[in-house]
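Q: Can I see a sequence and its folded structure?
A: Here is a first one.
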Amino acid sequence: MASSVVGTRPNFSTQSLSMNEPVVSVDWLHANLREPNLKVLDASWYMPDEQRNPIQEYQVAHIPGALFFNVDGIVDLTTNLPHMLPSEEAFAAAASALGIENKDGIVVYDGKGIFSAARVWWMFLVFGHSKVWVLDGGLPRWRASGYDVESSASSDAILKASAASEAIEKVYQGQTVGPITFQAKFQPCLVWTLEQVKQNIEDKTHQHIDARSKGRFDGTAPEPRKGIKSGHVPGSKCIPFPQMLDASQTLLPADELKKRFDQEGISLESPVVASCGTGVTACVLVLGLHRLGKPDVAVYDGSWTEWADRGCYSC
């Protein structure tokens, strides 16, 4: 993979990285790990059937100095849908509890390579923070490169992760939280609702791409969540998110990414909305489109789980 560093000096600043490039290499992160205005987030999350515990795995091994971002904790508490976006106020409170400030650059990684990290990268973009990147290849690439990891059974980072979830709860309970060090600014153009997806079936203003497997999309393979029938939104096209990645779980070069979208008839000149099962892997498609110079892609946050839960089936 080509490095996303612009220039030859590894000094951390918004000038030393391309704001149009959504990933950074493990070599770049290793060189800049101790920069004071750089925060590293372990955003590992796994599908229910994998039976993996991300916080336990974080405690066993994580990139030195990384904070833990709880994908299932920093959420909208007013819905039963999984890990939906929290409110602007709630996200600001959670980010502040983690010790994040608006001046910080953020690098997000996960334990699979590129998976849930893309979701948290997108969340920061949704709340107006553009200085955020995904670690290309994630923790597996970091470890394969021979870089150190650290373990901590009861660290400051665990306390901060708990404080972030508690801050979310307080906001939704109408309680005061603080201090607020991160100001969030919601970008509604990056998030779609159920009603917008329904309207798009009629209006066809946006190309709708689905990051789930072909089997789930076609209705021939089961959904991982009980009670949810498989299928797809009418008019949507299937581009399984692994097609964005190479064998080492790093983001494909731009020319290879473009081939993937071209094969499904997706035009980069027309608007795009992405979805998946619960709004996580759709963000991997968004990551790929960012590399292709298309940063204005929306995600249907409720995704197939909400669509099917509301009885809007189609195969």
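Q: Show me another, different protein.
A: A second, unrelated one:
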Amino acid sequence: MDPTCEESPAEDSNNEEEDLDSTKAAPRIRDTPEDIVLEAPASGLAFHPTRDLLAAGDVDGDVFVFAYSCQEGETKELWSSGHHLKSCRAVVFSEDGQKLVTVSKDKAIHILDVEQGQLERRISKAHSAPINSVLLVDENALVTGDDTGGIRLWDQRKEGPLMDMRQHEEYIADMALDPAKKLLLTASGDGCLGVFNIKRRRFELLSEPQSGDLTSVALMKYGKKVACGSSEGTIYLFNWNGFGATSDRFALRAESIDCMVPVTENLLCTGSTDGIIRAVNILPNRVVGTVGQHAGEPVEVLALSHCGHFLASSGHDQRLKFWDMTQLRTVVVDDYRRRKKKGGPLRALSSKAWSTDDFFAGLREDEEDAKAPEEVVRESDDDDDSD
């Protein structure tokens, strides 16, 4: 070998030290972004439509926007706003991602610039009661629902609401829109699913009341089914254009379903008072497993990232947590069903679900032994997705 290519022992040692230093300096890449710790629980949560940004509104009325990353140490707060006088209940990004709309217990709607966090518009008395939910219709229109069942449709370019209706008797917990942006579906504390035609600005109907508050609503099965979560831990299913009465229902072994977000056309995630985030398949109705948990604290709100890879959750532990959705998207429900009938524990669907140092770890085994092998109590045996 050419002696000029050989390194002396001293040079060799120096190179090893440099390699060691570079290894130490290399940032750790995580499966999910790090937890974000807030000073108060967040009741509103939304991902940016195209960028790796997460907005949160907390019970103190503060609004935050974070840039998140799987690279350790790179998740950070970009700005915060304290314009709301009371709890911020919901947040949503505009379609182009340039604006952030927030609603509050103080009855106000705020529109903020995403880049700088500056307040661009305030509608200070948007409702006569505290506002509980907001839904974007298009780049200009949005819908808000309040604590007394009132619903208002707004055009951001105009003063005053375009539509003002009060058909529900209790708070508007959640809202959803069909792909044509014609029908607005509302889940209410009065136990009814509401249907409103926002194109013609008229009320269509209320469903039969269920035994618990309806807390969430989502379109599933390519719009053929509507799923509603409830305070009693039951998911109610409605056929599209059959909103008067449920077509199916099934109860989770959960105290409640406080929030719900669709992940695919067949799968959704639910958050409950028991702190567990469950993955649920719709028709066949099965609890597929657990995605994650807030240790013994109620899950307040869930949101799915623009890429679909991460689920974010907010709990009463004042943490925003991220969960990897990769494994959930590959779940085969039939395989799970066979395993579950053997009485095995609820399947973990992320690396962080049911970790060994988790609050529930010492209790879970005893609880699972005490439960019936089937996690779901069903009313109907119809497992297909036909109308």
